[in-house]
TrEMBL record:
One Gene Ontology cellular component annotation held by this UniProt entry: endoplasmic reticulum quality control compartment
Family matches, as PANTHER family: ER DEGRADATION-ENHANCING ALPHA-MANNOSIDASE-LIKE PROTEIN 1, ER DEGRADATION-ENHANCING ALPHA-MANNOSIDASE-LIKE PROTEIN 2
Compartments in which it is found: Endoplasmic reticulum membrane
GO biological process terms, semicolon-separated: carbohydrate metabolic process; endoplasmic reticulum mannose trimming; positive regulation of retrograde protein transport, ER to cytosol; response to unfolded protein
Gene3D superfamilies in the cross-refs: 1.50.10.10
Protein name from the UniProt record: alpha-1,2-Mannosidase
Predominant place of localization: endoplasmic reticulum
């Protein structure tokens, strides 16, 4: 097995904690992605950042014009909205200044600045990690407002925003293991691994979402185990005396506890939640989202290969195939919510955001990891359907009339637009385009999300592309834009993306950091509301 490829794949998938540390300063181990992109990248590729807004007549490829048949209630908001009589502004105009200024600013990223950003990222990491270990461990996470640990909401089982993720298994510590190696702290990594081995058990009466437990816990355990045992030592020889595959055993135990989700389902698509001690709850719903059910293959597939048991990869692949076979015959698109017993689509919205995003991501990343041609055939077909039915705007990114490309939410059967918002999860897609070799379009789409970030200092959870204003006014520290920025930097080596990383890092430090009244005695980071950013 190509352990080096698996490690690289896992690090990409686990960017939720570590990618900021890699992209913002361009330092650390030199990871080669094995791609040779035929791209002569220059700043003129980002001329959309500098283009003067031109007044033109309405064009069919201009998505920023009002769509007939859609009405929008006027609601009070602290964020500005573009009124009907206000001059229309492209999102490109959110960048102030002129072309010469941006060429001067973005054409280089000095080594001294890299070192400064590296130190800043490390300080931010330890600020959160040290306070979690001091005030919250062994609970799942630190509540930075109340300065205490937080686990499942046992008094309110219906609080799925908390209970889907927190399972009373020291989530933050497990989720941090590989990040400790990324920043070079081998001693603390080894100490944290031993702490997980000594204290973590999954024999808990906790009902968690299969998807969340998979990507956060199972993925973290597998990643750390491979980093410990990889004979090529991508981060140096970090194994310690006496390690006996305990992390792998924990991962196997967790996966076995997730398997009941795949039982007693007519379609092979798993239930969304399981109780780690007793299996699928008797009152479990029969509806799940496409992303949740179709984003298990990477972790389950690697586990099967590590332990020599094909069961886990088999059930994950069966779920992906079942979803794929239920796509629309007319458009080739999938919906976002499905009944696992009847195979009927409950949610018919097809897009790149919540409920859909990682389904596409895992098709391509599974192919990169495992080399199964079936995965890439599905991804190619899905990508073509996305381009045919979700993409709006002019045909070329940097040329022609109308707005630059945008991917909208449509009805999976008709391809008609269902609403005029996108969500922050969609910012993963430029990174996926990079992995697929479509770098020009990735550059263009990434600029759209970065323009929004520049305007607000964060990505709104939902952004109305017609009104050019947020629909949902908070940002829960999502990493998708960071991952796309990182992959674009790796593909192009253009310093512009280091500046983007620096902007994101500084925004998080400014807006997401919680400081207590007692001289920072307990602090951390939490979600940001846009109206609180001044």
């Amino acid at each position: 097995m190509q352990w080096r490829s698996i490690v690289v794949g896992l690090v990409v998938l686990r960017l939720s904690l570590s990618c900021v540390l890699w992209l913002a300063f361009g330092l650390g181990p030199n990871v080669s992605w094995g791609f040779n992109f035929p791209l002569g990248f220059n700043l003129h590729k980002l001329d959309l950042l500098f283009r003067e807004e031109k007044v033109t007549e309405q064009k069919s490829n201009s998505w920023s014009q009002r769509i007939p048949g859609h009405s929008h209630e006027k609601t009070a908001s602290t964020c500005s909205r573009v009124g009907e009589e206000s001059p229309k502004r492209s999102y490109l105009s959110f960048f102030d200044g002129n072309k010469d200024e941006y060429v001067r600013r973005y054409s280089s990223f000095p080594d001294t600045l890299k070192a400064k950003m590296k130190d800043m990222a490390k300080e931010m990491f330890y600020f959160g990690y040290d306070n979690y270990m001091k005030y919250a461990f062994p609970e799942d996470e630190l509540n930075p407002i109340d300065c205490e640990g937080r686990g499942p909401d046992v008094l309110n089982p219906s609080n799925i925003n908390i209970n889907d993720v927190l399972g009373n298994y020291s989530l933050t510590l497990i989720d941090t293991l590989d990040t400790l190696l990324v920043i070079g702290n081998v001693t603390e990594f080894q100490r944290a691994v031993k702490l997980v081995i000594d204290t973590v058990s999954f024999d808990k009466d906790s009902t968690v979402q299969v998807f969340e437990a998979n990507i956060r816990i199972l993925g973290s355990l597998i990643s750390a185990h491979i980093l410990l045992t990889d004979p090529k030592h991508p981060f140096g020889n970090v194994v310690f005396e006496g390690y006996d595959d305990e992390l792998l055993h924990l991962a196997h135990d967790l996966a076995v506890r997730l398997l009941p989700a795949f039982e007693n389902t007519s379609t092979g698509i798993p239930y969304p939640r399981v109780n780690l001690k007793s299996g699928v709850p008797p009152d479990s719903i029969n509806e799940t989202c496409t992303a949740g059910a179709g984003s298990l293959l990477v972790e389950f597939g690697i586990l099967s290969r590590l332990i020599g048991d094909s069961t886990f990869e088999w059930v994950a692949r069966r779920a992906v195939r079942a979803l794929w076979n239920l796509r629309s015959n007319e458009t080739g698109l999938l919906g976002n919510v499905i009944n696992i017993q009847t195979g009927q689509w409950v949610g018919k919205q097809s897009g790149l955001g919540a409920g859909m995003d990682s389904f596409y991501e895992y098709l391509l990343k599974s192919y990169i990891l495992f080399g199964e041609k079936e995965d890439y055939r599905m991804f190619q077909a899905a990508y073509e359907s996305i381009q045919n039915h979700l993409r709006r705007g002019r045909e070329s990114c940097n040329e022609g009339e109308g707005d630059p490309p945008l991917y909208v939410n449509v009805n999976m059967f008709s391809g008609e637009i269902m609403n005029t918002w996108i969500d922050s999860l969609q910012a993963f897609f430029p990174g996926l385009q990079v992995l697929n070799g479509d770098v020009d379009n990735a550059i263009c789409l990434h600029a759209f999300y970065y323009a929004i970030w520049k305007r607000f200092g964060a990505l709104p959870e939902r952004y109305n592309w017609q009104l050019q204003a947020p629909d949902v006014l908070f940002y829960p520290l999502r990493p998708e834009l960071v991952e796309s920025t990182y992959l674009l930097y790796q593909a192009t080596k253009n310093p512009f993306y280091l500046h983007v990383g620096m902007d994101i890092l500084q925004s998080l430090e400014k807006h997401a950091k919680v400081r207590s009244e007692l001289q920072y005695t307990c602090s951390g980071e939490d979600a940001v509301r846009l109206e609180e950013i001044k």
